[in-house]
Predict the 3D structure of the following.
Amino acid sequence: MASDRGPVREYLAWSKYHAWWATRHLNRIPAERRLRRHLAESSPPWNVHIGAGLNELSGWLNTDVSPRCRYWLDVRKPWPFPRGSVGLVFSDNVIEHLSLSDGRAFLRNARQAMAPGGVIRTSTPDALEFVRAYLDYPDKHLDAMRAKGWQAEHPVDLIRTTFSLWGHHSGYVYDEQALTTELVRAGFSSVKRLNLGESDRVELRGIDRPPADTDFYFVLEAEA
Ligand SMILES: C[S@@+](CC[C@H](N)C(=O)[O-])C[C@H]1O[C@@H](n2cnc3c(N)ncnc32)[C@H](O)[C@@H]1O
């Protein structure tokens, strides 16, 4: 595929990606072991923060699949938690990085690990809001995108960015209806939409980190 970058920048980007990939895989084995050790040495219920990135929450088991994460949990693979041992699951802007079938595996694995009455909280970009903005008020949002340095030449950039940037090209972008259906399909119930930072459960309040790239996302909670 042709690139806008010159050969040197292209090579540097390629090397940076491969260095990141190699470090990530070097971290996997020790970080997987660390998680198993933690589970053996502590008692349930555990509150599991998946795809935590730099958002390390206290009182949570902050997991990820990154070069620097302390605890490695690939949510697509079987979870090392005994059935019913997880109280809360928090997933902040992660599911859109997984394909539909990987997202389904994540929700199924989470449901199996969770105790009855446990709660899963997920936030993700809102496809419906992007489409509404594209149809009804593109200019306001395009200006905001330009201010953040994103390419925003035409209204269609609102749709293009949502589905193709930030790693979403290999994932699945949801609206409320689609994610609600997937949660129910995985065995969750009482799905409800909440405002940023709000929850009936004190542990789930104020922990969302709004993505820098968009205002259009939504938060759902559901019961195991
Ligand atoms: C957009 S970042 C969000 C980071 C953080 N939750 C936040 O809101 O700042 C997406 C995160 O999902 C993680 N991720 C991607 N695929 C994953 C997988 N299969 N299992 C667990 N985490 C994954 C990435 O490593 C990354 O940290």
Summary: The longest strand covers residues 114-125. The chain has six helices and seven strands.
